[in-house]
Amino acid sequence: MSPVLESTARALLRRIAVEQAESRLPSLTAAVVRDGRIAWFGSRGRVEGAAPTETTQYRIGSITKSMVATVVMRLRDEDRLDLLDPIGKHLPGTPVGEVTVAQLLSHTAGLTAEPPGQWWERTPGMPVEELIGLLGPETARHRPGRRFHYSNVGFALLGELVARHRGVNWAQAVRAEVLEPLGMSQTTSRPRAPHATGYAVHPWADVLLPEPEHDALAMAPAGQLWSTPADLARWAAFLAGETAGVLDPATLAEMREPAIVDDGDAWTGGFGLGLQLARAGGRRLAGHSGSMPGFLSTVWADPSDRTGVLFMANATSGASRTLLTELLAILDEHEPRLPAEWEPTPADADLLELTGPWYWGPSAYTLRLLPDRGLSLDLIGGGGRASRFVAQADGTWLGLDGYYAGETLRLVRRADGSPDHLDLNTFVFTRTPYDPAAEVPGGVDGDGWRG
Protein backbone atom coordinates (compact mmCIF):
# COMPACT_ATOMS: atom_id res chain seq x y z
CA MET A 1 0.00 0.00 0.00
CA SER A 2 1.40 3.39 -0.99
CA PRO A 3 1.56 6.35 1.40
CA VAL A 4 -1.61 8.34 1.92
CA LEU A 5 -2.47 11.19 -0.40
CA GLU A 6 -1.14 14.65 0.39
CA SER A 7 -4.63 15.91 1.28
CA THR A 8 -5.14 12.97 3.63
CA ALA A 9 -1.75 13.53 5.24
CA ARG A 10 -2.60 17.19 5.82
CA ALA A 11 -5.90 16.30 7.51
CA LEU A 12 -4.23 13.68 9.71
CA LEU A 13 -1.44 16.08 10.67
CA ARG A 14 -3.91 18.81 11.54
CA ARG A 15 -5.79 16.44 13.85
CA ILE A 16 -2.70 15.55 15.85
CA ALA A 17 -1.56 19.19 15.83
CA VAL A 18 -4.85 20.18 17.44
CA GLU A 19 -4.48 17.32 19.91
CA GLN A 20 -0.93 18.26 20.93
CA ALA A 21 -1.80 21.95 21.32
CA GLU A 22 -5.16 21.67 23.07
CA SER A 23 -4.23 18.71 25.29
CA ARG A 24 -0.85 20.35 26.10
CA LEU A 25 1.25 17.29 25.32
CA PRO A 26 5.05 17.77 25.39
CA SER A 27 5.27 15.58 22.30
CA LEU A 28 2.92 13.40 20.28
CA THR A 29 3.55 10.85 17.53
CA ALA A 30 0.97 8.98 15.49
CA ALA A 31 0.93 6.57 12.57
CA VAL A 32 -1.47 4.87 10.18
CA VAL A 33 -0.62 1.33 9.08
CA ARG A 34 -2.06 -0.30 5.96
CA ASP A 35 -1.23 -3.73 4.60
CA GLY A 36 1.60 -4.18 7.08
CA ARG A 37 3.40 -0.88 6.38
CA ILE A 38 3.35 2.66 7.73
CA ALA A 39 1.24 4.69 5.30
CA TRP A 40 1.50 7.91 7.30
CA PHE A 41 3.55 9.16 10.25
CA GLY A 42 3.24 12.48 12.00
CA SER A 43 4.62 14.15 15.10
CA ARG A 44 4.28 17.39 17.05
CA GLY A 45 6.19 18.86 19.96
CA ARG A 46 9.81 18.24 20.91
CA VAL A 47 11.94 15.52 22.48
CA GLU A 48 15.32 16.83 23.60
CA GLY A 49 14.81 19.88 21.41
CA ALA A 50 13.92 18.05 18.17
CA ALA A 51 10.78 16.69 16.58
CA PRO A 52 10.24 13.04 17.56
CA THR A 53 10.71 10.49 14.80
CA GLU A 54 9.61 6.95 14.03
CA THR A 55 12.54 5.70 16.14
CA THR A 56 11.95 7.79 19.27
CA GLN A 57 11.16 5.57 22.25
CA TYR A 58 8.14 6.05 24.51
CA ARG A 59 6.93 3.86 27.33
CA ILE A 60 3.92 1.86 26.12
CA GLY A 61 2.51 0.78 29.50
CA SER A 62 -0.26 -1.79 29.34
CA ILE A 63 0.27 -2.58 25.66
CA THR A 64 2.88 -4.84 27.29
CA LYS A 65 0.01 -7.03 28.50
CA SER A 66 -0.99 -7.99 24.96
CA MET A 67 2.53 -9.21 24.23
CA VAL A 68 2.61 -11.27 27.42
CA ALA A 69 -0.80 -12.68 26.47
CA THR A 70 0.60 -13.70 23.09
CA VAL A 71 3.22 -15.89 24.78
CA VAL A 72 0.50 -17.39 27.01
CA MET A 73 -1.48 -18.32 23.89
CA ARG A 74 1.64 -19.88 22.36
CA LEU A 75 1.94 -22.04 25.49
CA ARG A 76 -1.70 -23.05 25.03
CA ASP A 77 -1.11 -23.96 21.40
CA GLU A 78 1.86 -26.09 22.50
CA ASP A 79 -0.42 -27.95 24.97
CA ARG A 80 1.64 -26.66 27.87
CA LEU A 81 -1.52 -25.30 29.48
CA ASP A 82 -5.27 -25.04 29.00
CA LEU A 83 -7.10 -21.73 29.22
CA LEU A 84 -9.48 -23.34 31.71
CA ASP A 85 -6.61 -24.34 33.99
CA PRO A 86 -6.71 -22.70 37.42
CA ILE A 87 -3.65 -20.50 37.81
CA GLY A 88 -2.77 -22.50 40.94
CA LYS A 89 -1.94 -25.47 38.72
CA HIS A 90 0.97 -23.47 37.31
CA LEU A 91 1.74 -21.23 40.31
CA PRO A 92 1.25 -23.49 43.36
CA GLY A 93 0.58 -21.66 46.59
CA THR A 94 -1.01 -18.62 44.98
CA PRO A 95 -3.85 -17.49 47.30
CA VAL A 96 -6.14 -16.90 44.30
CA GLY A 97 -5.23 -20.18 42.64
CA GLU A 98 -8.81 -21.01 41.63
CA VAL A 99 -9.11 -18.34 38.94
CA THR A 100 -8.45 -19.56 35.40
CA VAL A 101 -5.86 -18.52 32.88
CA ALA A 102 -8.66 -17.32 30.56
CA GLN A 103 -10.17 -15.20 33.32
CA LEU A 104 -6.83 -13.55 33.98
CA LEU A 105 -6.34 -12.83 30.27
CA SER A 106 -9.81 -11.28 29.96
CA HIS A 107 -9.84 -9.43 33.31
CA THR A 108 -12.80 -11.47 34.53
CA ALA A 109 -10.96 -13.19 37.41
CA GLY A 110 -12.34 -10.67 39.89
CA LEU A 111 -8.91 -9.79 41.26
CA THR A 112 -8.00 -6.41 42.71
CA ALA A 113 -6.75 -3.89 40.18
CA GLU A 114 -3.54 -2.94 42.00
CA PRO A 115 -1.04 -4.84 44.16
CA PRO A 116 -0.72 -4.32 47.94
CA GLY A 117 1.83 -1.84 49.17
CA GLN A 118 2.76 1.54 47.74
CA TRP A 119 1.59 2.95 44.39
CA TRP A 120 3.42 0.47 42.16
CA GLU A 121 3.67 2.68 39.08
CA ARG A 122 5.64 5.34 40.99
CA THR A 123 7.82 3.25 43.32
CA PRO A 124 10.55 0.63 42.83
CA GLY A 125 9.21 -2.87 42.22
CA MET A 126 9.33 -5.96 44.38
CA PRO A 127 10.35 -9.54 43.45
CA VAL A 128 7.51 -11.81 42.39
CA GLU A 129 7.94 -14.05 45.44
CA GLU A 130 7.39 -11.04 47.68
CA LEU A 131 4.34 -9.94 45.71
CA ILE A 132 2.71 -13.37 45.86
CA GLY A 133 3.47 -13.51 49.59
CA LEU A 134 1.55 -10.26 50.11
CA LEU A 135 -1.56 -11.48 48.31
CA GLY A 136 -4.40 -12.72 50.49
CA PRO A 137 -8.20 -13.16 50.60
CA GLU A 138 -8.70 -9.44 49.91
CA THR A 139 -7.04 -9.91 46.49
CA ALA A 140 -10.36 -11.32 45.23
CA ARG A 141 -12.80 -8.44 44.81
CA HIS A 142 -15.51 -10.20 42.78
CA ARG A 143 -16.68 -13.72 42.07
CA PRO A 144 -14.53 -15.13 39.24
CA GLY A 145 -16.31 -14.80 35.89
CA ARG A 146 -18.96 -12.41 37.18
CA ARG A 147 -17.83 -9.17 35.62
CA PHE A 148 -15.06 -7.23 33.93
CA HIS A 149 -12.63 -5.77 36.46
CA TYR A 150 -9.26 -4.66 35.09
CA SER A 151 -6.40 -6.20 37.06
CA ASN A 152 -2.73 -5.35 36.82
CA VAL A 153 -2.12 -8.01 39.47
CA GLY A 154 -3.57 -10.64 37.15
CA PHE A 155 -0.93 -9.93 34.52
CA ALA A 156 1.84 -10.08 37.12
CA LEU A 157 0.69 -13.66 37.70
CA LEU A 158 0.56 -14.38 33.96
CA GLY A 159 4.08 -13.02 33.57
CA GLU A 160 5.29 -15.43 36.23
CA LEU A 161 3.40 -18.27 34.55
CA VAL A 162 5.35 -17.52 31.34
CA ALA A 163 8.64 -17.40 33.25
CA ARG A 164 8.10 -20.76 34.95
CA HIS A 165 7.17 -22.50 31.70
CA ARG A 166 9.97 -20.96 29.64
CA GLY A 167 12.72 -21.01 32.23
CA VAL A 168 13.58 -17.35 31.54
CA ASN A 169 11.97 -14.14 32.74
CA TRP A 170 8.85 -12.88 31.02
CA ALA A 171 10.72 -10.15 29.12
CA GLN A 172 13.21 -12.61 27.62
CA ALA A 173 10.35 -14.85 26.53
CA VAL A 174 8.49 -11.93 24.93
CA ARG A 175 11.64 -10.80 23.15
CA ALA A 176 12.47 -14.25 21.75
CA GLU A 177 8.94 -15.31 20.81
CA VAL A 178 7.23 -12.04 19.84
CA LEU A 179 9.50 -9.04 19.38
CA GLU A 180 12.34 -10.59 17.39
CA PRO A 181 10.11 -12.53 14.94
CA LEU A 182 8.11 -9.36 14.28
CA GLY A 183 11.23 -7.25 13.76
CA MET A 184 10.53 -5.10 16.83
CA SER A 185 14.20 -4.63 17.68
CA GLN A 186 13.71 -1.23 19.32
CA THR A 187 11.22 -2.46 21.94
CA THR A 188 12.99 -2.87 25.28
CA SER A 189 12.31 -3.36 28.99
CA ARG A 190 14.15 -0.17 29.96
CA PRO A 191 14.59 3.02 27.96
CA ARG A 192 17.38 3.50 25.44
CA ALA A 193 18.41 6.70 23.69
CA PRO A 194 16.83 8.48 21.99
CA HIS A 195 13.78 8.30 24.23
CA ALA A 196 11.18 10.74 25.43
CA THR A 197 11.21 11.83 29.07
CA GLY A 198 7.90 11.32 30.81
CA TYR A 199 6.25 14.45 32.17
CA ALA A 200 3.23 15.53 34.17
CA VAL A 201 1.75 18.80 32.89
CA HIS A 202 0.50 21.16 35.60
CA PRO A 203 -3.31 21.45 35.42
CA TRP A 204 -3.33 25.26 35.71
CA ALA A 205 0.03 26.33 34.28
CA ASP A 206 2.15 25.42 31.28
CA VAL A 207 4.96 23.85 33.29
CA LEU A 208 6.28 20.30 33.48
CA LEU A 209 7.23 17.84 36.21
CA PRO A 210 9.47 14.90 35.26
CA GLU A 211 7.89 11.57 36.19
CA PRO A 212 9.81 8.65 37.77
CA GLU A 213 10.91 5.57 35.85
CA HIS A 214 12.02 2.31 37.43
CA ASP A 215 11.99 -1.45 37.04
CA ALA A 216 8.61 -2.69 38.21
CA LEU A 217 9.99 -6.25 38.70
CA ALA A 218 6.98 -8.45 39.61
CA MET A 219 4.53 -5.93 38.13
CA ALA A 220 6.59 -5.40 34.98
CA PRO A 221 4.41 -7.69 32.78
CA ALA A 222 1.58 -5.22 33.38
CA GLY A 223 3.34 -2.23 31.80
CA GLN A 224 7.13 -2.23 31.60
CA LEU A 225 7.98 -2.07 27.89
CA TRP A 226 9.27 0.87 25.88
CA SER A 227 8.82 1.02 22.10
CA THR A 228 8.92 3.29 19.06
CA PRO A 229 6.28 4.30 16.52
CA ALA A 230 8.01 2.10 13.93
CA ASP A 231 7.97 -0.95 16.21
CA LEU A 232 4.42 -0.31 17.40
CA ALA A 233 3.38 -0.12 13.74
CA ARG A 234 4.71 -3.66 13.35
CA TRP A 235 2.61 -4.68 16.33
CA ALA A 236 -0.46 -3.07 14.72
CA ALA A 237 0.25 -5.05 11.56
CA PHE A 238 0.45 -8.23 13.64
CA LEU A 239 -2.92 -7.53 15.27
CA ALA A 240 -4.38 -6.89 11.81
CA GLY A 241 -3.27 -10.33 10.61
CA GLU A 242 0.44 -10.15 9.66
CA THR A 243 1.29 -12.87 12.19
CA ALA A 244 4.77 -13.76 10.83
CA GLY A 245 4.51 -17.20 12.40
CA VAL A 246 4.24 -15.82 15.94
CA LEU A 247 0.70 -17.17 16.32
CA ASP A 248 -1.62 -19.28 14.25
CA PRO A 249 -4.12 -16.86 12.64
CA ALA A 250 -6.95 -18.80 14.28
CA THR A 251 -5.39 -18.22 17.70
CA LEU A 252 -5.06 -14.49 17.05
CA ALA A 253 -8.70 -14.44 15.94
CA GLU A 254 -9.60 -16.17 19.20
CA MET A 255 -7.81 -13.43 21.15
CA ARG A 256 -9.86 -10.82 19.28
CA GLU A 257 -13.20 -12.45 20.16
CA PRO A 258 -15.20 -10.62 22.86
CA ALA A 259 -14.92 -12.44 26.19
CA ILE A 260 -16.58 -9.66 28.18
CA VAL A 261 -18.02 -6.20 27.59
CA ASP A 262 -17.78 -3.35 30.04
CA ASP A 263 -20.32 -0.82 28.83
CA GLY A 264 -23.71 -2.46 28.44
CA ASP A 265 -25.65 -4.44 25.87
CA ALA A 266 -24.89 -2.29 22.80
CA TRP A 267 -21.22 -2.50 23.61
CA THR A 268 -18.63 -0.17 22.21
CA GLY A 269 -15.80 -1.51 24.37
CA GLY A 270 -14.84 -4.89 25.71
CA PHE A 271 -12.03 -7.35 26.19
CA GLY A 272 -10.83 -10.51 24.51
CA LEU A 273 -7.84 -12.57 25.60
CA GLY A 274 -5.22 -9.96 26.40
CA LEU A 275 -6.69 -7.51 23.88
CA GLN A 276 -8.99 -4.55 24.32
CA LEU A 277 -11.83 -4.36 21.81
CA ALA A 278 -13.84 -1.45 20.45
CA ARG A 279 -16.49 -0.72 17.86
CA ALA A 280 -16.31 2.65 16.14
CA GLY A 281 -17.43 3.98 12.77
CA GLY A 282 -18.50 0.56 11.55
CA ARG A 283 -15.14 -0.95 12.47
CA ARG A 284 -14.37 -3.71 14.97
CA LEU A 285 -11.02 -2.85 16.50
CA ALA A 286 -8.57 -4.84 18.60
CA GLY A 287 -5.55 -3.49 20.43
CA HIS A 288 -4.67 -1.96 23.76
CA SER A 289 -4.09 1.35 25.48
CA GLY A 290 -1.13 2.12 27.71
CA SER A 291 -0.69 4.52 30.59
CA MET A 292 2.26 4.93 32.94
CA PRO A 293 3.55 8.02 34.78
CA GLY A 294 4.60 10.39 32.04
CA PHE A 295 3.34 8.36 29.08
CA LEU A 296 0.19 7.56 27.12
CA SER A 297 -0.19 5.28 24.10
CA THR A 298 -2.79 3.28 22.22
CA VAL A 299 -2.78 0.95 19.23
CA TRP A 300 -5.82 -0.28 17.32
CA ALA A 301 -6.07 -2.66 14.37
CA ASP A 302 -8.93 -3.58 12.06
CA PRO A 303 -8.20 -6.99 10.53
CA SER A 304 -11.10 -6.67 8.09
CA ASP A 305 -9.09 -4.25 5.95
CA ARG A 306 -5.59 -4.71 7.44
CA THR A 307 -5.52 -1.19 8.84
CA GLY A 308 -3.92 -0.03 12.08
CA VAL A 309 -3.49 3.25 13.90
CA LEU A 310 -1.43 4.28 16.92
CA PHE A 311 -0.26 7.20 19.01
CA MET A 312 2.46 7.74 21.63
CA ALA A 313 2.81 10.78 23.93
CA ASN A 314 4.99 11.70 26.90
CA ALA A 315 2.36 13.05 29.29
CA THR A 316 0.69 11.45 32.30
CA SER A 317 -2.78 12.54 31.17
CA GLY A 318 -4.63 14.67 28.67
CA ALA A 319 -4.84 12.83 25.36
CA SER A 320 -8.31 12.41 23.89
CA ARG A 321 -9.83 8.93 24.03
CA THR A 322 -11.18 9.44 20.50
CA LEU A 323 -7.96 10.55 18.83
CA LEU A 324 -7.31 7.28 17.02
CA THR A 325 -10.89 6.63 15.94
CA GLU A 326 -10.96 10.18 14.55
CA LEU A 327 -7.78 9.49 12.59
CA LEU A 328 -9.46 6.38 11.17
CA ALA A 329 -12.53 8.46 10.30
CA ILE A 330 -10.29 10.91 8.40
CA LEU A 331 -8.73 8.00 6.52
CA ASP A 332 -12.17 6.60 5.64
CA GLU A 333 -13.40 10.00 4.48
CA HIS A 334 -10.39 10.85 2.32
CA GLU A 335 -9.30 7.42 1.11
CA PRO A 336 -12.00 4.78 1.53
CA ARG A 337 -10.58 1.40 0.68
CA LEU A 338 -11.70 0.01 -2.67
CA PRO A 339 -13.33 -3.41 -2.49
CA ALA A 340 -11.35 -6.27 -3.96
CA GLU A 341 -12.19 -6.97 -7.59
CA TRP A 342 -14.72 -9.73 -8.04
CA GLU A 343 -13.58 -12.68 -10.05
CA PRO A 344 -15.12 -16.10 -10.63
CA THR A 345 -14.08 -18.99 -8.42
CA PRO A 346 -14.26 -22.66 -9.48
CA ALA A 347 -17.00 -24.62 -7.72
CA ASP A 348 -17.71 -28.35 -7.59
CA ALA A 349 -20.92 -29.46 -9.26
CA ASP A 350 -22.06 -31.35 -6.16
CA LEU A 351 -22.03 -28.07 -4.24
CA LEU A 352 -23.67 -25.95 -6.90
CA GLU A 353 -26.85 -27.98 -6.63
CA LEU A 354 -27.03 -27.10 -2.92
CA THR A 355 -27.11 -23.34 -3.45
CA GLY A 356 -30.23 -21.24 -3.20
CA PRO A 357 -33.20 -21.26 -0.82
CA TRP A 358 -33.56 -23.65 2.12
CA TYR A 359 -36.20 -23.48 4.82
CA TRP A 360 -35.96 -24.02 8.55
CA GLY A 361 -39.65 -24.44 9.22
CA PRO A 362 -41.24 -21.33 7.67
CA SER A 363 -38.02 -19.27 7.83
CA ALA A 364 -36.34 -18.78 4.45
CA TYR A 365 -32.55 -19.09 4.25
CA THR A 366 -30.15 -18.97 1.35
CA LEU A 367 -27.06 -21.13 0.95
CA ARG A 368 -24.06 -19.68 -0.89
CA LEU A 369 -20.67 -21.15 -1.76
CA LEU A 370 -17.44 -19.90 -0.23
CA PRO A 371 -13.85 -20.70 -1.27
CA ASP A 372 -12.45 -24.16 -0.51
CA ARG A 373 -15.89 -25.81 -0.44
CA GLY A 374 -17.08 -23.55 2.35
CA LEU A 375 -20.73 -22.60 2.82
CA SER A 376 -22.61 -19.55 4.07
CA LEU A 377 -26.13 -19.93 5.46
CA ASP A 378 -28.02 -16.63 5.84
CA LEU A 379 -31.59 -15.71 6.66
CA ILE A 380 -33.18 -14.02 3.65
CA GLY A 381 -33.68 -10.39 4.63
CA GLY A 382 -30.84 -10.46 7.15
CA GLY A 383 -30.56 -11.20 10.84
CA GLY A 384 -31.35 -14.61 12.24
CA ARG A 385 -28.95 -17.44 12.84
CA ALA A 386 -26.50 -16.79 10.04
CA SER A 387 -23.22 -18.72 10.02
CA ARG A 388 -20.33 -19.67 7.79
CA PHE A 389 -19.10 -23.24 7.55
CA VAL A 390 -15.78 -24.82 6.63
CA ALA A 391 -15.59 -28.18 4.86
CA GLN A 392 -14.38 -31.19 6.86
CA ALA A 393 -12.61 -34.30 5.60
CA ASP A 394 -15.61 -36.53 6.42
CA GLY A 395 -17.93 -34.60 4.07
CA THR A 396 -19.58 -32.48 6.76
CA TRP A 397 -19.12 -28.78 7.50
CA LEU A 398 -18.12 -27.12 10.76
CA GLY A 399 -19.66 -23.81 11.85
CA LEU A 400 -17.17 -20.93 12.04
CA ASP A 401 -19.23 -18.15 13.60
CA GLY A 402 -22.67 -17.01 14.65
CA TYR A 403 -25.20 -19.25 16.38
CA TYR A 404 -23.82 -22.41 14.78
CA ALA A 405 -20.14 -21.85 15.62
CA GLY A 406 -18.63 -25.25 16.38
CA GLU A 407 -21.74 -27.14 15.24
CA THR A 408 -21.85 -29.70 12.44
CA LEU A 409 -23.79 -29.28 9.19
CA ARG A 410 -24.53 -32.53 7.38
CA LEU A 411 -26.12 -33.10 3.96
CA VAL A 412 -28.60 -35.98 3.90
CA ARG A 413 -29.19 -37.50 0.46
CA ARG A 414 -32.01 -39.67 -0.85
CA ALA A 415 -31.48 -43.22 -2.05
CA ASP A 416 -30.89 -41.92 -5.59
CA GLY A 417 -28.16 -39.57 -4.35
CA SER A 418 -30.12 -36.35 -4.73
CA PRO A 419 -30.08 -33.84 -1.81
CA ASP A 420 -32.93 -34.36 0.64
CA HIS A 421 -32.28 -32.03 3.55
CA LEU A 422 -29.62 -30.37 5.65
CA ASP A 423 -29.16 -31.53 9.23
CA LEU A 424 -27.66 -28.76 11.33
CA ASN A 425 -27.21 -30.07 14.86
CA THR A 426 -30.67 -31.74 14.66
CA PHE A 427 -32.35 -28.76 12.94
CA VAL A 428 -33.70 -29.80 9.54
CA PHE A 429 -33.51 -27.47 6.52
CA THR A 430 -35.62 -28.48 3.50
CA ARG A 431 -36.18 -27.11 0.00
CA THR A 432 -39.78 -26.17 0.80
CA PRO A 433 -41.24 -24.91 4.09
CA TYR A 434 -41.90 -27.93 6.33
CA ASP A 435 -41.55 -30.34 3.42
CA PRO A 436 -43.99 -33.17 4.24
CA ALA A 437 -41.80 -35.63 2.31
CA ALA A 438 -38.81 -34.96 4.53
CA GLU A 439 -38.12 -36.40 7.93
CA VAL A 440 -39.07 -33.53 10.23
CA PRO A 441 -38.70 -34.39 13.92
CA GLY A 442 -41.99 -33.72 15.66
CA GLY A 443 -44.09 -34.34 12.55
CA VAL A 444 -46.08 -32.10 10.21
CA ASP A 445 -49.83 -31.57 10.51
CA GLY A 446 -51.52 -34.00 8.11
CA ASP A 447 -53.91 -31.40 6.74
CA GLY A 448 -51.02 -29.23 5.64
CA TRP A 449 -51.18 -25.49 5.10
CA ARG A 450 -54.61 -23.86 5.24
CA GLY A 451 -56.27 -20.48 4.76
TrEMBL record:
Domain Beta-lactamase-related: 18-326
Matches recorded under Pfam families: Beta-lactamase (PF00144), DUF7586 (PF24491)
Coiled-coil region(s): none
InterPro entries: AmpC-like, Beta-lactam-related, Beta-lactam/transpept-like, DUF7586
Sequence ranges assigned to domain DUF7586 in this UniProt record: 348-431
Organism: Streptosporangium roseum (strain ATCC 12428 / DSM 43021 / JCM 3005 / KCTC 9067 / NCIMB 10171 / NRRL 2505 / NI 9100)
Gene3D superfamilies, per database record: DD-peptidase/beta-lactamase superfamily (3.40.710.10)
Protein name: Beta-lactamase
